[in-house]
Design brief:
193 residues; Rossmann fold; four-stranded mixed beta sheet; 10 strands; 20% strand
Length: 193
């Protein structure tokens, strides 16, 4: 294992421990603030179609926002593991997220529908364990999102996390993909500015 990879492993482990230690009350309050800020950001950008994600326990719960947007007629897509190992594909949401089955990784995922072409996706909500204000992102270590985001050069990539996950510097390697914006419970960051 090279130094970059071991730095990432250490940082990921430390940050996940901090996120798991958040009280349920703090997580709920912060998740609501993230949803409000994210919705306002998306309204400003006139987003009507988005590749989102089904939140895991250490991530802000954006499920109520995605379900509400879907019910209002927005096109909501969620990632699903692809046929090739380590890949994700975009699947249209067809029911409330909490009604979806969990995949082998424990993530709620649409099933049955065909994937949509990636070249039509213009906005992606990106989960992450850590981000820095330059848009560098540290994920869970499988590389799924890095492979997906590499195929979406036309899309605005919006990192979604708790403020505690934003650090001065995030260890990355050459293959790691950056986000354009970050939305937390306390601020919205333009990573280019």
């Amino acid at each position: 294992m090279n130094d970059g990879s071991s730095d990432k492993t250490r940082s990921r482990s430390t940050m996940l421990g901090e996120l798991r230690a958040m009280s349920p009350e703090h997580r709920d309050r912060a998740s609501k603030l993230v949803r409000d800020r994210l919705e306002a950001f998306m309204e400003t950008r006139k987003v009507t179609s988005v590749l989102g994600f089904a939140s895991l326990g250490t991530e802000p719960d954006i499920t109520p926002l995605l379900d509400r947007l879907h019910a209002a007629g927005h096109r909501i897509l969620l990632p699903r593991t692809g046929n090739e190992p380590g890949t994700l594909e975009a699947i249209p949401l067809d029911r409330p997220i909490n009604e979806l089955e969990k995949d082998a990784l424990g993530v709620r995922t649409p099933s049955g529908a065909d994937p949509v072409p990636l070249d039509g996706i213009r906005t992606v909500l990106v989960p992450g364990v850590m981000f820095d204000t330059w848009g560098k992102r540290l994920g869970r270590g499988g590389g799924y999102y890095d492979r997906l985001l590499e195929q979406l050069p036309q899309a605005a990539l919006i990192g979604v996390c708790f403020e505690a996950s934003v650090h001065e510097e995030v260890p990355t390697e050459a293959h790691d993909q950056r986000v354009d914006f970050i939305v937390t419970d306390q601020r919205t960051i333009d990573c280019a500015g």
